[in-house]
Amino acid sequence: MHNQYIKDAKDRMIKTLDAFRHELAKIRTGKATTALLDGIKVDYYGNLTPLNQVGNLTVLDAHSLSITPWDRNMIDKIEKAILSAQLGLNPMNDGTNIRIPIPPLTQERRKDMVKLVKKFAEENKIAVRNVRRDANEHIKRQEKNKEISEDEMKSFEIEVQKLTDESIKKIDEITADKEKEIMEI
């Protein structure tokens, strides 16, 4: 018999890992990636619209991005949105495209980025532990209500702990990879 709370805990831990990966993709590593622009929204005729929905985003090379707006009237608004996002990027437009050079990171800035990655990692580990706590509480409640035996409760708790350990190990691996990527010159 497999417990519904274990399945729920596994799904929630997977979602936590996905959210962690998504958050790390936004952190600059000195290499150009369109993920740097993910959080930017542009005023598109009165609606705040994600940047990738008002133009084509491309990586030109390791140190520059390009945006080709679908509506040329949007160039100034896109440029202002990028500047107001305070990412340390200075867009340049040529009338039809916006080119964004990605400046190299200083050693001090790289260390700050690593601290930020570690902070995100710790927050996500806490989230995984909270999922474990919730699952264990539900399992204990089932045992208290005589829905499952004490032995089943113990084996379910062991299974939840295995899921927790795997998720935390995965967070540590992702963190180490991102740190290595950030410190790489």
Task: For this entry, give a set of tags.
185 residues, 2 domains, Topoisomerase I, Chain A, domain 4, alpha+beta, Gyrase A, domain 2, two-stranded antiparallel ribbon, 4-stranded antiparallel sheet
Written overview of the protein:
The protein is of the alpha+beta class and 185 residues long. The chain has 2 domains: 4-26 and 106-183, Orthogonal Bundle (Topoisomerase I, Chain A, domain 4); 34-101, Gyrase A, domain 2 (2-Layer Sandwich), CATH 3.30.1360.40. Helix content is 56%, strand content 15%. The strands form 2 sheets. The chain has a 4-stranded antiparallel sheet, covered by helices on one side. A two-stranded antiparallel sheet has the order 1-2. β1 and β2 (47-50) form a beta hairpin. α1 (4-25) packs antiparallel against α3. The protein starts with a helix and ends with a helix. The mean pLDDT is 89.
Give the secondary structure arrangement, pairings included:
Blueprint: H1 4-25, E1 41-44, E2 47-50, E3 55-61, E4 64-69, H2 75-84, E5 92-93, E6 98-101, H3 107-144, H4 150-183
Helix pairs in contact: 1-3, 1-4, 3-4
How is this structure best summarized?
The chain has 185 residues and is an alpha+beta fold.
The CATH superfamily of the largest domain is Ribosome-recycling factor
What is the name of the CATH architecture of the largest domain?
A: Orthogonal Bundle
Estimated structural class: alpha+beta
> Which range does the strand content fall in?
5-15%
Helix content: 55-70%
CATH structural fold name of the largest domain: Topoisomerase I, Chain A, domain 4
Radius of gyration: 22 Å
Largest sheet: 4 strands, antiparallel
Question: How many structural domains are formed by the residues?
Answer: 2
CATH class of the largest domain: Mainly Alpha
Mean model confidence by pLDDT: 89
Order of helices and strands: HEEEEHEEHH
Question: Count of DSSP helices?
Answer: 4
Q: What is the straight-line distance between the termini? A: 52 Å
Query: What's the number of extended β-strand segments?
Result: 6
Q: Which residues form runs of ≥5 with pLDDT under 50?
A: none
